[in-house]
Design a protein that fits this description.
about 30% helix; about 260 residues; three-stranded antiparallel sheet; alpha+beta; 2 domains
């Protein structure tokens, strides 16, 4: 989980955070364009679990630091997969160090979208990425002579609608790139949203969000202050004059 670490570079959020991740691997022309969309609440449970701590209104995470950190974590995990022979280096990269240098030639981008307002905005945002396929039927223009023609948005021209034609074989290849492999979970939850915390931290967070937390009146007091608060009197005040303060002295026997 990335969020708690970069938070410490500015005003730290002393809380257990959460995160929801959704991969988005395709572009408008079905090209391989991997992205990961993350949704995180602006706050979390306090360390003792009795309070919901809100993030500062003007700051959540440093985006530039988060971009570099994501690149570093991704590269490290990629190296682990290669060392365990779960992945193979692509053609043209005889050593991992060469691949790493290539990955570090460009700055990676983490785009921090402004906070969503209300549950309807959250559902609308998630719906665009969680339950869609690579291309909808409405974008298909024609399928003839072994070729497929479909519409796409050209974001280099401010989202202008254009048409592209590719062979059926190429269309199938691009489409199949975005079919998730067996055992791959499209939506993953972390922190207080993780499955292991459904009946503990998640329920506690839901119960605390938007509610005033009352702290015990005795919290942070010394034993002397607790006694005075519970008994209603001062144990070191002189009981005869009710003004003086009793002090403890140790009287030692004279030598000899």
């Amino acid at each position: 989980m990335l969020l708690p670490r970069p938070c410490k570079t500015q005003e730290e959020i002393p809380a257990s955070l959460a995160q929801k991740q959704v991969p988005w691997p395709w572009g408008q022309t079905l090209s391989y364009h991997p992205q990961v969309h993350m949704l995180a609440p602006a706050g979390g449970l306090s360390e003792d679990g009795i309070e919901w701590v809100n993030a500062p209104k003007k700051f959540f995470v440093p985006v530039k630091a988060l971009s570099k950190m994501f690149r570093g974590v991704f590269t490290r995990l990629l190296r682990n997969q290669l060392d365990e022979n779960k992945l193979k280096l692509p053609n043209g990269f005889p050593k991992f160090q060469i691949l790493k240098e290539k990955l570090y030639e460009k700055n990676w981008n983490v785009y921090a979208k402004k906070a969503l307002r209300g549950i309807n905005s959250v559902l609308a945002y998630l719906g665009r990425y969680t339950h869609r396929v690579a291309i909808s039927n409405s974008r298909l223009v024609a399928i003839e002579n072994g070729k497929v023609t479909f519409r796409y948005k050209n974001y280099r021209k401010r989202g202008k609608q254009e048409i592209i034609t590719i062979s059926c074989m190429e269309f199938t290849r691009r489409f199949m790139m975005h079919v998730l492999p067996k055992g791959f979970y499209k939506i993953r939850y972390y922190g207080i949203l993780a499955t292991a915390n459904i009946k503990t931290k998640r329920q506690q967070a839901i119960a605390l969000i938007g509610k005033t937390t009352w702290l015990p009146v005795l919290e942070g007091l010394t034993a002397y202050e607790v006694y005075r608060a519970l008994r209603g009197n001062d144990p070191i005040r002189c009981q005869k004059c009710n003004k003086g303060v009793l002090l403890r002295y140790k009287i030692e026997s004279p030598p000899g």
